[in-house]
Design brief:
Blueprint lengths: L8 E2 L2 E2 L8 H15 L2 H15 L5 E3 L1 H7 L3 E6 L9 H14 L4 E6 L3 H13 L2 E7 H6 L1 H9 L3 E5 L6 H15 L3 E3 L10 H9 L1 H14 L5 E5 L4 H7 L9 E9 L10 H4 L1 E5 L2 E5 L24 H9 L3 E6 H15 L5 H13 L8 E6 L7 H11 L6
Parallel strand pairs: 4-14, 5-6, 5-8, 6-7, 9-10, 9-14, 10-13
Antiparallel strand pairs: 1-2, 3-4, 11-12
């Protein structure tokens, strides 16, 4: 595709809404990234780390028991949970880590919500010998204690952000403030397809490996492209990673699943594509959850990784152009999916990925056996076990204790 344009716009979305002092750093990053994509030495090194360190290609697994249980369409899982560190986030941080080395930076900083991006960034920093600081909301630190420990064990400093909603939104703001003051020796490693240009493009390119692999693997297994591809959407990196290589295939329906939280009508959710307005957040224009006064609203989701009031600008463009459609599922539906996939396939999904599985549970039974669905299983659920135990225990579910 030809988007974004040279100014980083996806239609009316994207761009660079930043203070003037940050522009030189963004322009240097864009120029270096564009050169790196044409540098065969850089690309060979990236491919070597993908195959020998990340563990790519990740499998495309036919979920036979889940398919039988649901009836209808055949369901495949793209197993990003089997990538090193347990999620797709490592695809991006290894790429951005190599970019930091290429730019001779000594330090990287990141924001994180569920902790998966923080762990992946800390991992890349340890691998490449870079100092690493990770900003994380204090509410998310409490929800994701294991990932906080993992980041520290990998040598990163985890900096709590104790203002506002104490979640990913504030962590992102603090990381950008840090970069404004330190960009001469520091690279900001944004974890999703958000932020000012060129970050949405950089993250998309490093995550598109998911979709390219899926395209090859489903052709081998089914001899054709899938009918539907489903992935969760917070900022939207795993979904854009698997969607983008299929964006021109009209026969493939792309479906993003946002966090419906307590119900889309309650206002307590994380679904800016369903209920947001066009606005600016963290340096780019997209759909944002705004109140009547134009202030960013507090979000809610069972999943720390989907608890974000904005979405990547390319998703906003995909929605308006009809390239993808976006739905939402509630916390309860995601928790049911977390439990079902664990019991049916022995695969415990991250709460984020459970949102995508929850939509498959609704959709697959309505389709015929000759239809094929691919789900991006973006991460593993180890990090969410403690919360799941508490929530399922409170429901009195068997096996939750």
């Amino acid at each position: 595709m030809t988007i974004p344009d040279t100014n980083g716009h996806f239609g009316q979305f994207g761009g660079r809404y930043v203070i003037e002092t940050l522009m030189p750093a963004l322009l240097r990053l864009e120029a270096e990234f564009d050169k790196a994509l044409k540098d065969s030495k850089f690309l060979r090194k990236l491919e070597r780390y993908r195959s020998t360190y990340i563990g790519r290609p990740t499998p495309l697994y036919f979920a036979e028991k889940l398919t039988k249980r649901l009836g209808g369409a055949r369901v495949y899982l793209k197993r990003e949970d089997l990538a090193h560190t347990g999620s797709h986030k490592i695809n991006n941080t290894i790429g951005q880590g190599l970019l930091a080395l290429r730019m001779k930076k000594k330090r990287i900083i990141a924001e994180t919500g569920a902790g998966q991006h923080g762990v992946a960034t800390a991992t890349a920093a340890a691998l490449f010998g870079l100092k690493c600081d990770v900003y994380m909301g204090s509410k998310d630190m409490e929800r994701q204690k294991i990932n906080v420990f993992r980041m520290k064990l990998l040598g990163a400093d985890v900096i709590p952000v104790d203002v506002g909603t104490k979640t990913l939104k504030e962590a992102s703001s603090e990381a950008i403030r840090d970069w404004i003051a330190t960009s001469d020796h520091t690279n900001l490693v944004i974890g999703s397809v958000i932020g000012p240009h060129p970050f949405p493009k950089i993250v998309r390119e490093f995550q598109s490996v998911i979709g390219h692999e899926t395209r090859f693997q489903i052709m081998v297994k089914e001899g054709r492209l899938p009918d539907k591809i489903i992935a969760c959407v917070g900022g939207g990196s795993n979904s854009m990673g698997i969607f983008h290589p299929f964006a021109h295939d009209d026969e493939v329906e792309l479906i993003g699943v946002e966090a419906g939280g307590l119900g889309i009508s309650t206002g307590k959710h994380g679904a800016p594509l369903a209920k947001g307005k066009v606005g600016v957040l963290h340096g780019s224009k997209s759909y944002v959850m705004l109140d009547k006064d134009g202030q960013v609203m507090e979000t809610h989701s069972l999943s720390a990784g989907l608890d974000y009031p904005g979405v990547g600008p390319e998703h906003a463009y995909f929605k308006d152009m009809g390239i993808a459609q976006y739905v939402n599922v509630t916390d309860d539906e995601a928790l049911n999916a977390f439990e079902l996939l664990s019991k049916e396939e022995g695969i415990m999904p991250a709460f984020e990925s459970a949102h995508a599985i929850a939509h498959v549970m609704k959709m697959a039974p309505k389709l015929s056996r000759n239809k094929v669905i691919v789900v991006c299983l973006s991460g593993r659920g180890d990090k969410d076990v403690e919360v799941a135990q508490r929530l399922l225990g409170s429901r009195g579910k068997k096996g939750a204790k």
